[in-house]
Design a protein that fits this description.
The protein is α+β, with helices and mostly antiparallel strands. The chain contains 16 helices and 14 strands. The mean pLDDT is 94.
Length: 490
């Protein structure tokens, strides 16, 4: 029995999914193969069989159409048929000589593959054309105008398909790809894919589902909390580690709606103050936030930010100036240098709430940088080791409230926390302290493994999963030896 059902369109949601039975945290809800996959619109030359980047050494052009491929096997990959067939019909082969830099011709490939379904595979096209394209909303955007010239007109002229596809047909497909595609991080570079069922999942900035990918490119949907029968299933369409204004703006620009989910509607973001600034008034411990983030206008009409303790206000222009300056400083920050990261946090903690998204991003970088040297954590100063553990624990507390669906992120942080605590245990001269630390580290590894259990080994998180399993076995061996030593004192 399926764990969900498709509900017919309504004015605000379109088709969407609701659970048909209780689903436990961590359960797989469904797996789904892609209807269409292909290169991202902005990409370097890639193999149109497997998606790997192409260079002068591994380039084996398709003998029929000339598109760069990485091997004879990939030349025969069925996914390459659409662009190959249309190129052969054109009469001249594609010739690409510049590798390692973005090539504009790839903008058309995934769109062309969708159009191929319209012409030759109606059963697939029937599913594709039901997906939202937001053509009317897109018409006044610069991207739509660029797609008209660089994709629609190019496809009709270059492939000589002006008698087959109307310009509006192609632009509609561009919209379907833009609105419904998912980035699949299994290749280098990542590719994009469209999944029929996953395209019907609602958006929430605190969703109850998370997605992963199997080695074959299938999408795996996982419950990120306990889900009751009748609950709507949701994922996050944007970056949950962005502040509310940035998330909402990104969603409007790419998905054409203003989000008003529970997180966006709560200026404190569930009490985390993830977008808040510190009050500038001396001796005030309050934080500045606007009355709402749900305004749909530009900054000239947005409300002032008001302190939740003293009522002091700051104009949205002043807030924007401060955030822009800090953001620029962060862009220039050497993310691989521990001291630079610590100085950034110290300097900007004067202006921002401790959980602010800028500080959170740098703290994430910090826990990964500490211990990155040749000898890993062995040579790390005790103060930095404690900082790594403390920061990782703080981040886990924040993510547990704000975005529990980020299973890969939380799994990585649990791994970093276990590493710091394990090293603290190794350095201890007291057997009881060592035992306590290792037991604590073991629990963090168990959490890490549970969160990352569906990650394939080809992804960084999959590699962390394998290392976590190995480290768990090692800790169990050490704990047994400690127990044996305690049971059989000399």
């Amino acid at each position: 029995m399926l764990r969900f059902k498709v509900v017919a369109e309504d004015e605000s949601l379109g088709r969407h999914l609701i659970s048909t039975k209780p689903i436990k945290n961590g359960e797989i809800i469904f797996r789904e193969r892609a209807m269409i996959h292909g290169p991202a619109q902005i990409t370097i030359p890639v193999c149109l069989g497997c998606g790997k980047s192409i260079n002068e050494k591994n380039n084996h052009p398709c003998p029929d159409c000339g598109w760069p491929m990485c091997s004879e096997i990939c030349q025969k990959n069925p996914s390459h048929i659409p662009e190959c067939r249309y190129t052969v019909q054109r009469g001249d082969k594609v010739i690409i000589k510049n590798f390692g830099v973005i090539h504009p011709i790839y903008q058309c490939v995934t769109v062309l593959r969708c159009l191929y379904q319209k012409q030759f595979l109606p059963e697939v096209w029937e599913k594709l054309e039901k997906l939202q394209s937001h053509c009317e909303e897109r018409k006044n955007t610069p991207k739509y105008k660029n797609e008209r010239i660089q994709v629609a007109q190019f496809i009709r002229k270059f492939f000589k398909l002006d008698q087959v596809f109307l310009e509006d047909d192609i632009l509609r497909v561009c919209g379907i790809v833009m609105v419904n595609c998912h980035e699949v991080p299994l290749g280098d570079p990542p590719y994009i894919a469209i999944y029929e069922t996953c395209s019907m999942l609602e958006h929430s900035c605190k969703p109850n589902c998370s997605k992963s990918f199997a080695k074959d490119g299938s999408l795996v949907l996982i419950a990120s909390g306990n889900i009751d029968r009748g609950d709507h299933l949701s994922i996050c369409y944007t970056d949950p580690l962005w502040g509310t204004p940035n998330r909402r703006h990104h969603l409007y620009e790419t998905k054409f709606f203003w989000c008003s989910c529970a997180r966006c509607s709560d200026v404190t973001e569930f009490g985390t103050y993830f977008s808040a600034m510190k009050c500038r008034k001396m001796k005030c411990a309050g934080y500045l936030l606007p009355k709402t983030f749900l305004e749909k206008t530009d900054n000239t009409k947005n409300s002032d930010w008001i302190c939740d303790k003293c009522g002091e206000s700051l104009s949205c222009f002043s807030v924007q100036d401060v955030l822009e300056r800090i953001g620029n400083d962060m862009m220039e920050l050497p993310k691989g240098e521990t001291e630079a990261l610590k100085k950034f946090i110290d300097a900007n903690s004067f202006f921002l709430h401790p959980n602010h998204y800028f500080l959170t991003e740098i703290r994430l970088a910090l826990i990964q940088v500490i211990g990155q040297g040749e000898n890993e954590l062995v040579d790390v100063a005790h103060e930095d080791l404690e900082l790594k553990a403390k920061t990782a624990a703080q981040l886990l507390g924040l993510f547990g409230v704000l975005t529990p669906a980020e299973r890969r992120l939380r799994g990585m942080v649990f791994f970093e926390l276990h590493a710091a605590v394990s090293e603290m245990g190794r350095r201890s001269i007291e057997p009881d302290v060592m035992h306590s630390r290792l037991m604590e580290a073991k629990q963090y590894l168990v959490e890490c493994i549970e969160l990352l259990k569906n990650e394939p080994s080809c992804l960084p998180e999959g590699k962390i999963l394998e290392q976590a399993k190995e480290n768990l076995r090692s800790i169990d061996v050490i704990l047994r030896k400690i127990h044996e030593s305690a049971s059989n004192p000399m």
